Sequence to fold (463 residues):
Amino acid sequence: MKLIFLLMAVFIQLIGLNSISVMGQNNVGINPTGALPDPSAALDIVAADKGLLIPRMSAVQRMAIAAPANGLLVYDTDSMCVLVYRSATMSWFSLCSGGSGGNGHNTLVTTATEPAGANCPYGGARLDFGVDINDNGTLDAAEILPTLTQFVCDGAPGSTGAQGPAGAAGVQGPAGPQGPAGSGLNTVALTTNVAPGANCPYSGVLLQFGLDANSNGALDAGEINPLHSRYICNGAPGSSGGLGCTNANYVLKNDGTQIVCSQIFDNGTNVGIGTNTPTQKLDVPGNVKFSGALMPNNNPGTTGQVLVSQGANTAPVWQSIGNVIQVLKATSTRTLISTTSFSNIGGLTLSFTLTTNATVLVSTYGSIETTSTSYYGSGVIVQVFLNGVAVNDMFQTIDVTDPSGFTNTIAPWSMTNTIVLAPGNHTINVRAKKYAFDDFYAGGNTTAPNPNEGALILTIIPQ
Fold:
């Protein structure tokens, strides 16, 4: 608490001695009269000759802010507008006008070969990102945001694989000319398998040789020369080696010295990587890195699309962001309110149909214009209704005063909140009533063009 009072004392000195700081239990007011701060405000500043100055920066500097907080305010010196960051849509929203803003600068990316070095030990690719400030369609050197640069590196070279099997035999060449007939006999051989016994304890093959006396191309029993017979015997069987992996259902791998269990588990129904209790066809606890496209139903999608779930046991589909997030807007007409019951403000009604659960961001703004000539003002309540029922936390009480006795004094209303809705037909509208004093106009004033003095904006985000 002492630190809070010390900071407030420094702040008061900075804004000048003509203002008075008034502190309640949970809020602070700065004004020249010493009035207590509004209980709904953490900081209530009143001044007729000064303003509130927030941080100013270029669009490049703003886009380089790391992880901006929801509701962060900056003044963009390129667009000369105040912008607020919305974490729900991960985008900056300009407060220059209530209508749709112009197209912003495009974000560009360039790729370049990255040689082997500190960033990529085995080489790879460098990805540079930035905002196309001059809108020439090229990411110039001055537009690159170094903090966003990423590297996609090649892996280490793999070891040389084992030699492949011998290729198929080539086509037989043409037969050569027949040589002169010989005068001797051919030597022929006969091979016979030998069962285990005295000649080969563990079995083998008997090779027998002799002259083909009858020239029939076979070694007959009478042609065998026993002096040339030889046995080729099998060696004693080796001892059985142990299993390198004794865990059931694990896929084997070679660790360079032996066969061991890998981290891949296959129970015949599901496959797990890093788990022996897979619950899906492929179950991977932890992060999964992709170097290629994610292709549900063999569809890689197109640039800028997002994956949208189609429910259990159904592949997700790629959809454009405009088909996922829907924005509806209605503008008001100047409406006279003369009763103490809620009445619709002309034009501020939107109806829509949901096919799935959705979060709806409701925003409305406009102005109240008193017609008072005797009470010097109007007491007004503006309320948002959903399907005919008032929405909690979406009402505003406004006192439009005119101490000079002139009509047409105006005061603004502005509200934003989120509502979670189920599938079905829904209607959201803005209503107003007076709770005291004179009648008033809602949604317009006599000095500004109709019908743009009020709006209802719905941003529908499916869940």
Confidence is low (pLDDT under 50) at residues 1-17.
